[in-house]
Amino acid sequence: MTIHLETQSDLEEAVHALIKRDPRLKPVLEIAGMPALRRREPGFTGLAHIVCGQQLSTASAAAIWARLSAAFDPLDHDAVRRARADRLGRLGLSAAKIKTLKHLAREIAAQRLNLDVLAEEDADAAHHTLIALPGIGPWTADLYLLFCLGHGDAWPAGDLAVQEGIRIGLGLKARPTEKQMAPIAEPWRPLRGAAAHLWWSYYRAVKKREGVLAESG
Q1: HhH-GPD domain: from which residue to which, for each copy (predicted)?
Q2: Calpha distance 67→85 (Å, rounded)
Q3: Does residue 78 sit in helix, strand or coil?
Q4: Alpha-carbon span 167 to 129, nearest angstrom
Q5: CB-based contacts of 16, cutoff 8 Å, min separation 6
Q6: Spatial contact of 124 and 142, defined as CB atoms under 8 Å apart
Q7: Burial (CB count within 10 angstroms: exposed 0-12, middle 13-18, buried 19+), residue 78
Q8: Three-state DSSP class for residue 40
Q9: Average pLDDT estimate for 38-55
Q10: Are 51 and 140 in contact (CB under 8 A)?
Q11: Using CA atoms, how far apart are residues 117 and 166, in angstroms rounded to an integer?
């Protein structure tokens, strides 16, 4: 059965279950504090939002998204499917992102792709369904599963902050590679999504703390 992280209490319950299962995570939580649940809109809109932010600064991504949202109301797959590519380009989207969004819109319109059913699928299977789509890489797929669908077992193995948090928190000699992240997270199934939230919070707490120490020394 797939576990969903729909509310903050869902996440807190999952984190406490993880700590009971893996005592190594107790000091991680003590430093990180309880992470806050991060959720975004599901469906085409949520995935389009993540695609718009690929390889861009937060400010640039937010500006493009604001222009898109203002230009299309509602911003759904039909609106993007019918929109002229040059109009989308004037709003700040690159040719590659326009191609990705157009393909997604056509697949959804033809009912060949149902983004909502991915919430009930095995996390690894849902991940592979998404990365098979043009322009959707592992980072985009994992963020969609975690933040838009609240998939409790989605695991962002390629996320540098999670990798670095694990290196520090588990006392590893080197930051684990994307491939090495799979066996590391195996004990946390089916709550790897909650573990990701915890490691993000830990990374932020440790990096801030390390910065303070460096400045005072």
Answers
A1: 52-203
A2: 15
A3: helix
A4: 29
A5: none
A6: no
A7: middle
A8: coil
A9: 92
A10: yes
A11: 31
The candidate with the shortest Cα–Cα distance to 159, out of 191, 214, 210, 204, is 204
Tokens encoding 135: 């322009």
Q: Which of 171, 11, 214, 63 is nearest to 3 (CA)?
A: 11
Contact between 162 and 199 under an 8 Å Cβ cutoff? The reply is yes
Q: In this structure, what token pair is assigned to residue 6?
A: 């729909």
Longest C-alpha distance within the chain, in Å? 61
pTM of the model: 0.87
Q: Reduced to 3 states, what is the DSSP secondary structure of residue 4? A: strand
Assigned token pair, 9: 């209490």
Helix, strand or coil, per DSSP, at residue 151: strand
Left if phi > 0, otherwise alpha if psi is -120 to 50, otherwise beta: which for 7?
Answer: beta
What is the length of the chain? 217
Q: What is the pLDDT of residue 55?
A: 85
Measured CA to CA, the distance from residue 120 to residue 151 in angstroms comes to 8
Cα–Cα distance for residue pair 63/56, rounded to 1 Å: 11
Q: What is the pLDDT of residue 209?
A: 63
